[in-house]
Design a protein that fits this description.
Helix content: 40-55%
Shape: extended
Strand content: under 5%
Number of helices: 2
Mean pLDDT: 83
Structural class: mainly alpha
Distance between the termini: 35 Å
Length: about 70
């Protein structure tokens, strides 16, 4: 994880169920929801870089350049 000085603030929208589950995890480990999300994103990016996360399913349309 990077230090706080190089972080950039973003805004995301979650459904109530996802937020409730994130809140439960954060409460269980006595950390912020932001920390739980940063941890999940860091793990995803690490797996992606290592090649263990080879496919990303996003029901948004075609990947850029695949037309």
């Amino acid at each position: 994880m990077t230090n706080g000085k190089s972080r950039q603030r973003i805004t995301i929208s979650l459904d109530k169920g996802a937020l409730k589950r994130l809140s439960s995890i954060a409460l269980e480990y006595d950390v912020s929801i932001a920390r739980v999300i940063r941890h999940a994103v860091d793990n995803f990016l690490k797996e992606w870089k290592e090649g263990s996360q080879e496919q990303l399913f996003l029901p948004l349309g075609n990947k850029k350049g695949d037309q």
